[in-house]
Amino acid sequence: MGNEEAVFYSRVLTELTLSFHIIYATIGVGVPLMIMIAQWVGIRKNDEHYILLARRWARGFVITVAVGVVTGTAIGLQLSLLWPNFMELAGNVIALPLFMETFAFFFEAIFLGIYLYTWDRFENQKKHLLLLVPVAIGASFSAVFITMVNAFMNAPQGFDIVNGELVNINPIIAMFNPAMPTKVAHVVITAYMTAAFVLAAIAAFRLLKGSDHIYHKKALYLTMKLGLVFAIATAIIGDFSGKYLAEYQPEKLAAAEWHFETQENAPLVLLGVMSDGEVKYAIEVPFGLSILAHNNPSAEVIGLDQFPEDEIPPLYIHYLFNIMVFIGMWMVLLSIWYWVGIKRNWRSVSTRWFRWLIVLGAPLSFIAIESGWWLAEVGRQPWILRKIMRVEDAATTSGQVDLMLMLFALLYLILGIGSIVVLRRMFRKNPVERELADRQTEKGGDIQ
Amino acid sequence: MNLEILGITVLWTFLFGYIIVGAIDFGAGFFNAYSLLTGKQRILTKVIQRYLSPVWEVTNVFLVFFFVGIIGFFPKTAFYYGTTLLVPVSIGVILLAIRGSYYAFETYGARGHKGYSFMYGLAGLLIPASLSIVLTISEGGFIEIVDGSPVLDYWVLFTSPLTWSIVVLSISATLYISAVFLTWYANKARDIEATDLLRKYALIWSLPTIITAGGIIFELRRHNFDHYTNIQTFLPMFLLSFILFVGTVWLLWTRRNYGWAFGLLAGQFAFAFYGYGASHYPYLLYPHLTLYDSFTNPAMAIALIIAFILGLGLLIPSLVLLMRLFLFNKDYVRGKDDFHV
Amino acid sequence: MVEFIIFYAPFIILIAAIVVAFLIAPMDKAVNKED
């Protein structure tokens, strides 16, 4: 196998692992906060339903965390196995957040273990809720630290290269690179958003499947509201990301927006297809790109004409950008509609088709997450470390990557199917109505 | 002590931690599966699951910590080991993934599912075998530099007696460590039947463990004479390790003080492990890579050490809390209360 | 301004969103009428 093939398969394997891992990682980052909010509401309002909601979410969460942990271990090792040259360089400059990520994860793992096995162990429920704080913090900070590494790949700084040697290394400056704030905030907030919409989809699905219990209605209302808040925040931070790109990675923005010529009053190209180098069927929003990039309708936006041919990312990232943005917008609209509808007693929000739309929100959110990551990663091409190391120079020279790709594909298939089967089985065997009834009898004479 | 040695000592300590908690974990999974096969699950499953349940995720972190740390402190290892270890480590990762997730599937989703239990029991047993290959490779003689990049010679690797002794040692040590610990744990849970059975397993697995461990030192003489000579310098550590081993077996044999037996066992492995590590110095990979030519820049090293100290400040109290709530909590160990989510 | 948007504003929005989430989460009168 020539090295070109090793590079190709390394890219495919990394993409596969990340695409699979990000599903579980997103749930892993987002759901602890949702559990925390539900339990907090439950304790505050003394409402058994919210407590049970937290408890059932926590149960399902364990399964996804397990897959998240093991696939996270896989990607951690694959970075060194598939991109040894990159990791050798990166290890010198950006190892600090990688290392801290382990601590965050460690912290989370310990308290998750304690949290899961101490339900009802404490007289004071607030103490139990307190155990969840380090879980949520650890989960979110795992995302923060690991995204710092990814941000570094987009905007490397904190070192100089003199005669091929790394000098003047400053790990802190490398961590706090310009790509970091927008990227970290975007990753974390979309994890919250996706988690909220996934949990909303589950509640909506139960309602569709014949349950009319108020438990599900409360769950749906809570998660849709949370989803709305996080979706709006996502859009705002997304806009900031555009401004970051315009300033520091103009080629990525230009490729994602199909902005070919540097110009003032730049329009924003939405949708459209590319055929023979021409953009067709696109909607042009006048001044849109100038506003997105610089908050100023007449500002000049750098186009692809400013970059050498071999440093332009693939243009198909425009489609990924569109998918991500349109799904985000759609979820904002859907949740506003639902929220206002509930407040105003609109009939539409309790119809079957509307609930199906909410159910559909879960896969859509994941598609948005995946497109966002593909956009971020493909948009950095041809660089693995922008302007410093190309992807093809970073890959392994090993000849067995294709075989490993097949093995890992099989593994992810087994894990994916396994986790779905187990989750379905878990909740089907123990429906919420029965569990609520059980808890009533358990409490016996207690005052409810 | 210089930064290089400080760095590797920290990492080596985490690897040691992983070997002990990982062995307990993997061995327990295997004994659980084995008891299903022989119809003894009534005796073992309860005690094993009591221990395993709250700690499984923590085990994994020790490993992640080690490999993230080694890239941080010794970035060149990424180049040498990353390029050559693609296949063995990938297999290890796949096993880890199966082990971790199917453990969770069985425990939280489908209690008592036999297929799942077999899957994670077997996967767990193969993990030490596949990961121990890394130690074998570090002895040198299996990697050639071709056109500036290291290439692993699989034929030499898999026909070397050293490889297979280390594989056997890793498996039997896993079962030995696990059985000794679980004997103690079962005894604390006042589960007499389980204690007896696990004590038997511990005694059975003590023998292959010590034989292969001794054999490996002997084989190193042929395979890597430098390392063998270095080991002689640290002979007292290995002797001490052997004495502790005898102590553990004696305590088990006479059914006395299982807590001490596990303590001695930890000491035995600590002396052997640090003795081995020290005699490996200064090489990370014979003869290509030493601590010194692979070490990161001082700025990163200091940043990592500061992060490490701050992190420990956070972790140690949390670990103590975890152990007090589960490992050393009498009511929990004896199964009196169950507060599972 | 650009520097503020790129370096600080994302975290402000993130934290604000979490705070708002906690504030609005307990407001469930709209679905809790049956109790």
Automatic annotation (TrEMBL), chain A:
Its main location: membrane. It is found in: Cell membrane. InterPro entries: Cyt-d_ubiquinol_oxidase_su_1. It is a multi-pass membrane protein. GO terms for molecular function: electron transfer activity; heme binding; metal ion binding; oxidoreductase activity, acting on diphenols and related substances as donors, oxygen as acceptor. The chain crosses the membrane at residues 20-41, 61-82, 94-117, 129-153, 184-207, 219-238, 316-341, 353-376, 403-423. Keywords: Cell membrane, Electron transport, Heme, Iron, Membrane, Metal-binding, Transmembrane, Transmembrane helix, Transport. GO terms for cellular component: cytochrome complex; plasma membrane. GO terms for biological process: aerobic electron transport chain. It comes from the Bacteria. Belongs to the cytochrome ubiquinol oxidase subunit 1 family. This is Cytochrome ubiquinol oxidase subunit I.
Automatic annotation (TrEMBL), chain B:
This is Cytochrome D ubiquinol oxidase subunit II. It comes from Sporosarcina luteola. It is a multi-pass membrane protein. Belongs to the cytochrome ubiquinol oxidase subunit 2 family. It is found in: Cell membrane. Its main location: membrane. GO terms for cellular component: plasma membrane. It holds the Pfam family Cyt_bd_oxida_II. The chain crosses the membrane at residues 12-34, 55-74, 80-98, 118-142, 162-186, 198-218, 233-253, 260-279, 299-327.
